[in-house]
Automatic annotation (TrEMBL):
This is M1 family metallopeptidase. InterPro entries: Peptidase_M1_aminopeptidases, Peptidase_M1_dom, Peptidase_M4/M1_CTD_sf. The keyword Hydrolase does not apply. Gene3D superfamilies: Neutral Protease Domain 2. Keywords: Signal. CDD domains: M1_APN_like. Residues 385-591 form the Peptidase M1 membrane alanine aminopeptidase domain. Residues 1-22 form the signal peptide. It comes from Pseudidiomarina fusca. The keyword Ribonucleoprotein does not apply. It holds the Pfam family Peptidase_M1.
Length: 816
């Protein structure tokens, strides 16, 4: 019902009012009022395109980046848990600038007691002042105490023993926290190269105690006297800081979270370890004849074409290995080309399996997928680690480029999950049972498959697509979480991968948020902010907004443009728009630059019926509408009481108005109708007659954008006969009013219910207001019995005082 006249005038107005002054002035008024342009051009915010980075989001025609090659000799002292090493860096200045100094990253310095990271670590478990600090004391965990003790007992951070030029001449250097500036005796001109020689060493941290991306893990229960260790070495050598066209030296202090961005280069690394150790490292082993047995080399060869991973070191051999130690040493020699970092792992505990991934193509037809893990990894690792490595490459390459390196490795150790070129550290383990068997839970299985896919995925982003992790966590974690969600759901969609739109809803509506475009160390809630939200956003961009064809083309274009180069956020945003041909400024603004959330409410639906203008039809309809209105309770009750009205009691007194109501049609109106029809132009008459004949259902839907984030409206409706229809309304519907819009839907059949985003594809945080009419929300309720908490006043001390003191034996019995 409602506003039948409104309809007519709307039809009449549409033809004439396109350029009316009223519409024009209201648009101006909006910009003066509360209007917010959610579609404002993002170019105002992005850096100006230049010869290094084009407006298309591509490397510009004068794009450059530096190169740093490393030659490193390192020795692991297992007893002291220390490495000592000497490196030579060959640095190529490909920039157009002259450099007077070179900045080096000394990440191990984060563990020094006076590092910025240690000094600014905050305490988060204060006593509650509202309880007078009595009932809720401050809390410190045994883990925190153990860490504090370790940091006090051990001298940590880099010892820099020598810094010299290529001829051995000592160079001046200044250590600034986790960075070191080396002053060059002669400025390094554009196009020139220089050599730096650095001798260094450090005590390795106990990873379980200190936490971090590398370190050792001790296994005291191994058969060997004193136990064994697994050593994971990363951020272990002084690394040249990146020098870029967009930030010059990236020498922002390392605070632990904002990770790294390095220069690409070639590595030659010799690793001197106890002879019974197995070493996994970035790159390819070059002296396998010296460090592997003939049997091991044969197994490796056999693994290349194997259907399932082949043991190079079997579980039995590893178990035998970990029973004893040796004084002998072996030197493993690795080479890696065009990598931005180098990490390695070493232990006598390692089981080693391998399987060749026959990728095909010209880039790297065969990749050796390999896993290294102790017996604690067990069957879980044996079954799934190397297979997960291969699955990752299969999926990621489809979205980006062929995996370009000869190896891809997964190593088990104390680090939950961390990535480096060709090597990843992954944490899941099995549990030893009393009967000596090992089992693992479903969640540990999911953890293993998920973390291996995620970390191997990082070899693509950011190890190859070299985004700046120190500044933008989302550029690697967000893109990688999006793709690990693709790979993960192609492995097993019943595992929750956390990239579906509904995964991010609770975070999106929470308070205390920063935009995705926030520097890594300042991000609140890193997981949802830098992983889940951008991943869910890209998932929505792919499945809802662009569709797979456009998204996949643009995303692949981005990956290929920036493989082995340095993209910035602007390059990603620009490439996705330029290659898809879809303006996404509103999307980046909403999802990446704001803390808005999605909450589109369908608050009102009007059903309209076109007036025929024929008074004999229209006025009869209006009479019917009047009759359909509910009778007042007063009148109903009077009737129920049998109370007659004066009019009813006096039927002999009647006049004209008793016979004709206010809807009675007169000839005056009939004449007006005829003259209305005569004045219509032929096309107007044709249109009007057809509309009257069809008598369609006109629905006007009022949408309110409560979350602020503009999004497409995914509208679905159900007819009274049970059939359904849907409409995709692009986000641009909000361009002139981002808060509320109305939409006309015309249908043949009568509609029973309208729904917005019924399949939860847009991360709409409030589903309830998506339905018209509203729906009853199914939920659960449990009856519970209240229990009273015990404190030091309410405990029954009279009764408790009778308790006997338990003996040590009784205690142990109880624990079994
Ligand atoms: Zn990650």
């Amino acid at each position: 019902m409602k506003s039948t006249l409104y309809w007519c005038s709307a039809l009449a107005l549409a033809a004439t009012q396109l350029f009316s002054t009223a519409a024009y002035s209201s648009a101006i008024q909006q910009t003066k009022g509360t209007f917010e342009d959610k579609f404002r051009q993002l170019d105002e915010v992005l850096p100006t395109p230049n010869v290094y980075r084009s407006a298309a989001g591509e490397p510009g025609e004068q794009y450059w980046q530096q190169q740093a090659n490393y030659s490193i000799k390192v020795r692991l002292d297992e007893e002291k848990r220390r490495i000592d090493a000497a490196e030579t860096i060959t640095y190529f200045n490909n920039s157009p600038y002259t450099l007077k100094y070179i900045w080096i990253q000394l990440d191990q310095n984060i563990f020094k007691n006076d590092s910025m990271a240690e000094l600014t670590a905050t305490f988060n478990s204060k006593p509650d002042p509202s309880l007078g600090g009595v009932d809720r004391p401050a809390r410190i965990s045994l883990n925190q105490l153990r860490r504090q003790q370790f940091m006090t007992d051990n001298e940590l951070g880099f010892a820099i023993n020598k810094v010299a030029d290529g001829r051995g001449k000592a160079l001046d250097f200044v250590v600034v926290g986790t960075n070191m500036r080396i002053d060059l005796p002669q400025p390094l001109k554009a196009g020139d190269k220089t050599s730096l020689a650095i001798d260094f060493g450090f005590n390795i941290i106990d990873s379980d105690t200190v936490g971090g991306r590398s370190g050792y893990e001790h296994f005291p229960d191994d058969a060997r006297e004193g136990g064994n260790d697994i050593f994971l070495l990363a951020q272990w050598y002084p690394r040249v800081a990146a020098f870029t066209d967009y930030e010059a030296w990236t020498n922002k202090e390392f605070l632990g979270r904002g990770e790294f961005t390095q220069e690409f280069g070639d590595f030659e690394v010799t690793i001197d370890v106890p002879a019974d150790h197995i070493v996994s490292a970035t790159g390819v082993l070059k002296n396998d004849r010296e460090v592997l047995t003939k049997t091991q080399r044969e197994r490796l060869e056999q693994s290349r074409k194997a259907k399932r991973p082949v043991f190079v070191v079997t579980p039995e051999e590893a178990l035998e290995n970990e029973k004893e130690g040796t004084d002998k040493r072996k030197v493993w020699r690795f080479e890696a080309e065009n990598v931005r970092d180098f990490a390695w792992a070493s232990s006598r505990k390692f089981i080693w399996d391998a399987k060749g991934y026959q990728q095909g193509g010209n880039v790297q037809p065969e990749v050796m997928a390999m896993s290294f893990y102790p017996k604690e990894g067990g069957e879980l690792w044996e079954k799934y680690s190397t297979e997960s490595v291969i699955h990752t490459m299969e999926v990621y390459s489809r979205f980006s480029f062929d995996y370009p390196y000869p190896t891809a490795q997964s190593v088990n150790g104390p680090v939950g999950g961390m990535e480096y070129p060709m090597i990843t550290f992954n944490g899941p383990r099995t549990i030893l049972q009393d009967d000596g068997s090992r089992t693992y839970s479903l969640s540990e299985k999911r953890f293993l498959i998920g973390v291996v896919i995620h970390e191997i995925g990082h070899i693509y982003f950011p190890m190859i697509v070299n985004s700046d992790e120190r500044q933008w966590t989302w550029m690697d974690e967000g893109l990688n979480s999006f793709l690990d969600g693709v790979a993960g759901r192609e492995w097993d969609p019943t595992i929750p991968w956390g990239v579906e739109p509904r995964s991010i809803v609770d975070y999106m509506k929470s308070t205390n948020q920063v935009p995705i475009m926030t520097q890594s160390d300042s991000v609140l809630n890193l997981g949802p902010n830098a992983y889940t939200k951008p991943a869910a956003a890209l998932n929505i961009l792919r499945e809802v907004i662009l569709g797979r064809e456009l998204f996949d083309f643009a995303f692949k274009e981005y990956a290929q443009r920036w493989a082995f180069k340095r993209p910035t956020p602007a390059d990603f945003f620009r490439t996705m728009e330029e290659a898809s041909g879809v303006d996404l400024d509103w999307f980046w603004r909403g999802w990446f630059y704001s803390t808005d959330h999605v909450d589109i409410a369908l608050d009102r639906v009007y059903k309209l019926r076109l007036d025929t203008q024929d008074p004999d039809i229209d006025w009869e309809r209006r009479r019917q509408e009047e009759t359909d209105k509910p009778t007042s309770l007063f009148v109903q009750r009077n009737q129920a009481e049998g109370r007659k009205t004066w009019v009813e009691l006096n039927p002999d007194v009647r006049d004209f108005h008793d016979e004709n109501d206010r809807f009675t049609v007169t000839n005056k109106q009939r004449n007006a109708y005829q003259s209305f029809l005569e004045k219509l132009e032929p096309w107007e008459r044709k249109t009007f007659d057809r509309a009257i004949a069809e008598d369609k259902n006109y629905y006007v839907l009022d949408f309110n954008n409560l979350g602020g984030l503009v999004m497409p409206i995914l509208l679905q409706w159900t007819y009274t006969d049970g059939s359904q229809d849907s409409m995709y309304i692009p986000a641009e519907i909000w361009r002139r009013n981002a808060k509320s819009v109305s939409k006309l839907i015309v249908t043949d059949k009568e509609v029973l219910e309208f729904a917005v985003d019924p399949n939860w594809e847009t991360a709409d945080v409030d589903i309830e207001n998506n339905y018209y009419p509203r729906k009853i929300i199914p939920s659960r309720i449990e009856a519970f019995k209240a229990t009273r908490g015990q404190d030091h006043i309410s405990r029954d001390i009279m009764q408790d005082a009778k308790t006997k003191l338990k003996t040590k034996e009784a205690n142990e019995e109880e624990q079994d």
